[in-house]
User: Fold these one by one.
Assistant:
Number 1:
Amino acid sequence: MPIVDGIPALNLGNPQPEDVDTRPHETAHDAVGPAPSRFWLRMSAAWWRSLQYVGMTLHFQAHKRPPNPTFTKTIPSTISKVKGEFTLQFYTPEGYAVADKTGRKFPAVVNFHGGGFTIGNATDDARFARFVLEICHAVFVSVDYRLSPENPFPVAVEDAADALLYLIRSGPDLHIDPSKLAVSGFSAGGNLAITAPLRLADHVKSARASGMHIPDYRIRAVATWYPVTDYTRPRALKRANSVRPDQTLPQTFTSLFDASYLYPPSLSLSNPYLSPSKATDEQLAEAIPETVIFYTCEWDMLLEEGKEFARRLEREPISRDVRYKMVPGVPHAWDKSPNPNRPAELSEDLYSECCEYLREAFERE
């Protein structure tokens, strides 16, 4: 049974291969069709958010219990045209409490949670945070970006870029070294881990061209877990091409997620801040850091697009150091299992592996 961010989900009503339209989607209307009302989407999202909270509560019970945030910061949006606030959850490693006295500056991993841009919370990845603290000795900053349908695209990616911009500007005051940043994310957050650096690079270029001072920074690595990278591919086609269509994300969820985030109907699905696979080689070479850590799931409908994108990043002219792994025999978001007795199989081994790669990236001169 697939798990969607801690929620066990029956897979009902998925189309059979003969029903699949293989034509690429160009606009949100192509992907969503006649969308439900925004009011209905808000009510549906609220219902699934409550269930997701229960699922994640169970997920956190398994030994070893994950850490709690050390402190939070609520910051104003500066990039998005939709003004508002969002919260950063800070998890801090050993030695941070005395950094005022020692003057030590820590690397930081800026994380984006999953949930189809519609459900989920910044604390959902606390199990991963524990490995970042213990192995990377880095601050883990998880972002409660604003969710759809209340805030459809591009608010989430702009909040994600804004979180990075805040740490670039304020990091030294928070004992964070802006030259040692990394981004991570799961599912929708895996998309943001790729698109936020793209959005940030464009914003910084524009801001500096207009005379605005933005401090120097360096993003050392991207760690992306089972991301969506191409919204132009029909969901039904992705599902039909999976080796286990019965284990892919249920249509109930994908329809809700897409109708909530892909708005208005005229939205181009080739926007690189939405579908990073549609970014140019020049955009990717400018914004994507040297180290790319990329995990996909064998039974996931997002497997093929993820694998293709990872290979593209590895090839010339982008030529990144890509650490790619397909996790066998698991569905999308398997690591968020709501089993209170034990963590999902392989999840902690892969969290550890990922953090070893992150540590290497931080330590590389």
Number 2:
Amino acid sequence: MKKLDHAFCTETRPYNQGARLTAYELVFDKIPATLICDDMAAMVMQTKDISAVVTGADRVVKNGDTANKIGTYQLAILAKYHNIPFFVACPTTSFDPCKETGEEIIIEERPDREMLYLNDIRIAAEGIIC
């Protein structure tokens, strides 16, 4: 198995799970890593020697369909476009044997507040709809 030379992790807005959790795990495991903005993924795939994209999954069903954070879909499309292998890594608790296809997966919806506020300070224009 090839040693991981460097990892890039996305911030995973708006709740910043990548910045808070993925980055922590990479640092904890002493894996050299760079935290990037979600919007940087395409440029990184184009300009860096990326050997694989690995993502998690909130749910995996019988036929292999997966559901994860909203940004995972664009990462999958970018990986395909750039001919980079795309892998889903998740614990067995993510597997749902009761659902046949992804059509049955209930997608989590996060509160609008996560996009409108940062540390209880409104950062978005009044009147904007989320």
Number 3:
Amino acid sequence: MTHDPTPEPATAPAPVRVLLVDDHAVVRQGLRLFLGLDPLIDVIGEAANGEEALQAAATLHPDVVIMDLMMPVMDGITATRTLKRQHPDTEVIALTSTLEEHKVNGAIEAGAISYMLKDASSDTLADAIHAAARGEVRLHPEAAKRLVRDFRGGEMRESLTPKETIVLQLLAHGYSNRDIATDQGVSEATVKTHVSRLLSKLGLDSRTQAALYALKHGIATLDGVNV
């Protein structure tokens, strides 16, 4: 008599490694407190300014950085730009108290994947962290409206294929590469190729900019986008 092999126990997903960057210790303490309630978020370090953030990121290798924008020594936009150049796989969530257009645009242009306000609920911020770890965009609704209004984007160098257009629309709706692959019945590697090609054709640098392009040109709508 043969026996079916005992199934391997499911492997629990690894927690998202998060670095908190804010010049106010009380803010960092509050973030650490409520993010610590999520077993799949691991706050691995803190920094009080952009310069400290770059040093910590080089040592700790976080998956996601929660970045304040207005800080002494080095501001969050400058730090985000440098961090994304040095650690392109680390995602940055801008977490601030302002919706000033130059801050919103500056953070996204620097490479932040999401833009949130400090009055966001703990659940909203936790969702943004998990989304960022998957490469998904989360934007405060008002920030999204301003970004779409002011977004210039690149000039399309050649036409998108029908498949690239679908991928762009799904990307704008917050789908990860895995989600897109499942939806379209293709491999994640194929999705990565589509994303890389459409970014090149549009002259864009990031998924967030691609999402804004889709919104600006009517390929996706704000009603269907995770903001």
Number 4:
Amino acid sequence: MSGGLIGSDVPLADRFDLALVDLDGVAYRGHEPIDGAADGLTSARARGMRLVFVTNNASREPESVADQLTELGIPTRSGEVMTAAQAAAQLLRTRLEPGAKVLVVGGAGLVTAVRSAGFVVVESADDEPAAVAQGFAPDVGWAQLAEAAYAVERGAWHVASNLDLSLPTARGFAPGNGSLVGAVRNATGVVPDSAGKPSPTMYRMAVDRAGARETLVIGDRLDTDLAGARAGGYVGLHVLTGVSTARDDVLAAPTERPHLIGADLLSLLEPHPVPRRDADGWWACREVAARVVDGALDLGRATPGSPATQLDLVRAACAAAWDAVDSGGSLDPATVPELHVDAPAR
């Protein structure tokens, strides 16, 4: 699969039969809807695209996630939700026998997943657990983190549901599970194993469960969602409604680059142009173009235009920047501006 952007002459919902959709920052933000999410996903379903919601959040039961999506206008069954808690429980099974004790630090979703995998859930390091399973929950505090640290110090295997440092909420970005895992790691010096994105484990589980001809991964974070797509060999769509920005796309490391970029989930209903290089070294995407000269990004005479033109400029900038870096050149980040993409009026 190409290391750069790809195009699609037909709407993505017509090309891919399965979409693995992230939640926070993609389908919703905290408990608030994201503009275009419900319309984009329900219309994609109507075209025949199946959906599985794949989240690094391990605090909630799949039924709870499905209920929230349904309330936001995205009818969802619990079987269409794959959580990092389920992936963590599967990871535990690769080394532990059923009946092993596991100290769970996290919410109800992680507790249920670990128990369903056949393990005995304990709450204290003094119970001599074989492993610590750690996932995000808003009520995780010092006492639980301390028990986890005690257990890991005594040799328990530390498994994190994910390593996301931040969590998008309606009020802004809050500390994520990776920040809480960092407290245990700092106390013990032990690097945990992680079941969540960017490991492609959840994606593979979801594909195996659903079956698919061609799978599209949709996310808002380059370091988790899109890195997981690259690691698993799936096409990744970055939507600009969450953590990572268009500027982040331009500066992305090869292992975190998206294959497609859209303003929001309504981009599932549109074709996606691919930038082409001309004889003068410009990477053109419809009406705009970009190039890199002596390590500096040059956006030509591009002016703020329609949202579609803004998005095309992001695509052209990514193509120019990635080509320059991959060819052994350099790119000065100071020459890459913030590239704003307004919500399209559809």
